Amino acid sequence: MTTLPRTDVVIVGGGWSGLLMAKELGARTSLAITVLERGAPRPANSYSEGMDELDYAIRFRLMQDVSKETFTFRHTAKDRALPIRQFASFFPGDGVGGAGEHWNGETPRFLPDVFDIHTRTVERYGAKRLPQNHSVQDWGISYNDVEPWYTKVEQLLGISGKGGLNPYEGARSAEFPTPPLRPGYVPSLFTAAAEGMGYGPYPMPSANLSQTYRNPDGIVRPACLYCGYCERFGCMVGAKAQPTNTLLPVIARQKSVSLTTGAHVRRIVHKDGRATGVTWVDAEGQEFFQPADLVIAASWTLNNARLLLLSGAGVPYNSVTGKGQVGRNLTHQPTGGITMFFDQPLNQFMGSGANSVAINNLDGDNFDHDPLTFLRGAQISAPAFGHRPIANFGVLPPRFPTAWGAEWKKASIRLYDRTAHLAAAGEHLAYKTNFMDLDAVYRDKFGDPLLRLTLDWNDNERNMMKFMSVEAAELARAMGAREVGIPQPLGHYDVTSYKTSHVQGGAIMGAGPATSVVNPWLQHWQIPNLFVIGASAFPQNASGNPTLTLLALTLRTANAIVERYQTSPGALA
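Above: the chain's sequence. Below: its structure in token form.
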């Protein structure tokens, strides 16, 4: 193993959180910073030559290669876990920019009560109302702690939106930097229907620019062209904020920051309560030790958890005893959707990744749950993401029992631009039975154990999504849909159908070390020179997309490192 020259800071992962941390520390300190990204680099013109739906959206060009590394899955601790052979339920990104390259760009703030969900729920309904096997807990911070950093991220990304239209949003210290996107036809129908039913529709905050914008770092990006190639693609013109067009141009000017690609980090090395660096392997199999005074784990949720478990950085969670922290509170996102069929064309070929209108009336605790069989709720939205010819062809009402034949072809052609969807994205409470640990059987190409996911839906999520489907169907009919397709009820968690890539937990934050891996500053409780950033810190999943929140927490942590940790290295809480 080759020992490299010491660096002040080593950051594991070159996605949104890792590159944002590098940019902030590079701009505000004289620290030498090394970013290690296991994937490939991305030239500035990576997406400018066009988009191939088959290559990107069907064959997952931007995603982690399951032939090299995957995860194993089971529903309960009594089941045998098997490897996931093809990603379908979620899509880990790969390469510089990570999942920040293929995201949609939806950037809502979390509802204020998400951060103290346990306290608020018990105050209103009593402790006995929580599911018997829950592990729901407060975050250790409040919405007000995060709000200034929400504003800074919105300014950095140029978020398009309009404050005050969502009646349930938390207080804002500044208006969105750019106006909302122009709504598509389907979102316009939804707006009228939702208002008629007494709801409060609002345009989804979007990282797809509505107009040309110069951010505080001097990065200029153009307005969205509504081409519809956002989700699973990088933006051809740069209108969608991505790590490669928002952060990398700044990092390229910072002489103190270096980015190494093809560096697969296998361990965080630590001794006597201090991290001393990381070990990594390059594409040729050569091993390196990168000494560092400060280590920041910034990879995707599941990879963060796996790295901590492989490194012995904290006590692994034990679902039988309830002891240990690393790997606990695995959450994903229960989703449901209503398929709508109209008589008129909808111009669905136009859109962008966050061109949607949403309501939060049935989200969080914004409505009375006393007479209901579940807690919390879901965000319901009408998207105009842009229908593409492969993925969106052949979606027909249930009265067509087969996906072949002359009648199917004729109906598929006619209904291609007369089909739309309403999406319901729900909260996922944390449970003692949903967790991550190291698999005892399956290993990766280096001989390291794969991460094992133990995950299933509970009755709270099943009942919640059944309720949301009924409400969404009423909205669909109010929009004028000729036919409405109701989804199947949630059964067991299924790794073969897409939900979202919003996977949380494993290195959760909290007010004390007994129930969390990191403190409110995302600093490891037992290893104070190790910070773990990203959605792995979320104690449970809110309904909204997590990117804005994880970036806000990253900025908050960067500020604490600059203003507090640098002057007095040690525990911040």
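The longest helix spans residues 459-478.
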